[in-house]
Amino acid sequence: MIFRQLHEPVSDTYTYLIGCEDTGLAVLIDPVINAIERDLKELAGLGLTLAYSLDTHIHADHITSARELKQRTGSKIAMPAMDRLPCTDVGIEEDQPFRVGRLNFQPIHTPGHTDGHFSYRLGDRLFTGDALLIDGCGRTDFQNGDVDMLYRTVTEKLFTFPDDYLVYPAHDYHHRRVSTIRQEKERNPRLGQGKSLAEFRAIMGGLDLAYPKFIDYAVPGNKQCGLCPDLLPEHLQEYCDRMAASPQG
User: Fold this and answer.
1) Cα separation of 183 and 228, whole Å?
2) Pairing label, strands 125-129, 166-169
3) Residue 27 in contact with residue 204, Cβ under 8 Å?
4) What DSSP character marks residue 155?
5) For residues 241 and 37, is the Cβ–Cβ distance under 8 A?
6) In the 8-state DSSP scheme, what is residue 165?
7) What is the mean pLDDT of residues 178-183?
8) Per-residue pLDDT reduced to its tens digit, 30-40
9) Dmax (CA) of the chain
10) Are the C-beta atoms of residues 79 and 91 closer than 8 Å to each other?
11) One-character DSSP codes across 30-57
C-alpha cells in the first residue's frame, strides 16, 4: 500500500492519498479544492491513477475537489449514499465493501457530526472524518447533528475496534497527525475516560462555538460535489483559490 497524509492549511484538513501497489489505482479521502494541484502532483510523482475521490461527509469548512478531479482525471465520485447527491457515481453504504484495486475499505456509518457521516476502515487504519478527532470530536449543532448519536457512534462503534488501531482524522488544529483507539479512549477529554452520555451532553452544550464562517458557501457547493460560488467575499477567497503552497502533514 502507498500512503500519504496531506495537509491543507486554510481549513486544517487532512487529505489521505492511498494507492494500490499492484494495480496503480488510488483513492483520495476528503480532497480539498484549493489543494488540487498538489494532489495531482503527488499522484503523478507516485505513478498512480486516481480511481475515486471519497468524502466522509458533506463538509462545512472547505470545498471538496471531487467534481474537478473527475473532470481532470476521469476519476469517479464516491460519497455516502444516504445523502442522495445526484453528482455521485458510487453511493457508499455501511457493510458494503468499497474496493480500489486490492484495497478493501470497510465503510462505517458514524453519524452525529452530520447525519450522513461515514468513517472508513482499511486494515488497522480508521479514517474518522470529523466524528472522532485527536482529543476531540466534531461539533453537533448543524447539518442534522445529534449529540446522543455522536456519543453512540464513538463509544459503540469506533471505540470497539482494537486499541492499537490508528485514528486518522479529517482535521487537527495542533499539528498532530495520528492517534490510536487506546489513546482516545484514555485521553479524549470529551469522550474518553469512560465519559457518560450526560457528561458528553454537558460538554458539547457548553462549547459556545462561533457560527462556521464558510458553511453557507461550503455546504451548497459540496452538495454539488465541489462547486465554488461565483460571488465569494474577498476575505473567503483563499478557500477556493489555488494555493501556491499546501504543505504535507
Assistant:
1) 37
2) parallel
3) no
4) I
5) no
6) -
7) 98
8) 999 999 999 99
9) 50
10) yes
11) S-BGGGHHHHHHHHHHHT-EEEEEE-SS
The β-bridge partners of 3 are 18
Specify burial of residue 209 (Cβ count, 10 A radius: 0-12, 13-18, 19+): exposed
C-alpha cell at 222: 459540496
Q: How many CA atoms lie within 13 A of 115 on its CB side?
A: 6
Name the nearest CA neighbour of 31 among 50, 16, 49.
16
Retrieve residue 9's grid coordinates: 492549511
Question: DSSP character for 69?
Answer: H
pLDDT band at 231 (very low <50, low <70, confident <90, very high): confident
Take residue 148 and report the three cell numbers written for it: 446522543
- The grid coordinates listed for 178 are 495520528
Q: What is the pLDDT confidence band of residue 248, given thresholds at 50, 70 and 90?
A: low
* 206/9 Cα distance (integer angstroms): 27
pLDDT at 170: 97
CA distance 166 to 127: 8
* Structural domains for the chain: 2-229 (3.60.15.10)
* Amino acid at position 124, single letter: D
End-to-end CA distance of the chain: 18
Cα–Cα–Cα angle for 177, 151, 9, nearest 5°?
25
Dihedral sign, Cα of residue 66, residue 68, residue 71, residue 73: negative
Altogether, the residues listed in the chain come to a count of: 249
Distance CA 28, CA 218 (A): 19
202-206 long-range contacts, CB within 8 A, separation 24+: 204/139, 204/140, 204/147, 204/150, 205/147
Nearest Cα neighbor of 29 from 38, 20, 39 is 39
